[in-house]
Amino acid sequence: MRFRRSRGFTLLELLVAVALLAVLALLSWRGMGSVIAGRDSIVERSDELRALTVVMSQMEEDLRRSWAVRLLGLSVPPVGFSTGNDREPPSLTILREAPGDDTTQIQRVVWRLRDGTIERGFSAWTVPIPGVTNPVPDIPFTWQPVVRGIEALELRGWLDGRGWLPAGVLAASQASEMAAEAARAEQLARAAQMGQPAQPGQPGQTLPPGQAPQAGAATPASNGVLVTGVEMVLVRRGERIVRVFAVAD
């Protein structure tokens, strides 16, 4: 009686099957990794776009609320700039109407770039008190990081008749105008103490008797450097993001 011998898989066949399964597993793993990386990239870009949208919306709101402050005729311009330094580029300072109160309160807001992060700081602000060393109380800012990963921040302001000017140039012009206005106010106060009214057309000119200043009239300091538009340029990953804001109600 003859027995028939059953034949199984050889060692070579098993090695080939294991190799094919390993290749399929590797391809599946790499495909799954690509899908996960793509999903993470989409989520990251969506978060970046959402953060940039918050920056644009908040700055537009701050500038819109500065229009009411302009009508108060303060010696400090409602939209100002700083000259910047080696560590930080020029920043944007806004005097805006504080929300949520029946009475008009002024809030000071600063937008700046620090260590690759756009920050928004805000604090209460009061009208300067003449004749004192520190005319404006030093109220600390509350800083909020808004968006990260910013390589550069460029700011420009629009002046009627002069066009777009860099933030540094505007900061120097505003500082010069405010110093001239302070000198005019000091000369006016000195003339009032001596009982000698200022000559018409000269710095420190007084109003005729019985005539009060008009409500909302802008002072020469704020009128000379009145910013009616702001251009913000953000550089992120080599891309330039440009947004222009109109300072109006």
TrEMBL record:
It is found in: Cell inner membrane. Keywords: Cell inner membrane, Cell membrane, Membrane, Methylation, Transmembrane, Transmembrane helix. SUPFAM superfamilies: Pili subunits. Residues 188-220 are annotated as: Disordered. Coiled coil: none annotated. Its main location: membrane. It comes from Zeimonas arvi. This is Prepilin-type N-terminal cleavage/methylation domain-containing protein. It holds the Pfam family N_methyl.
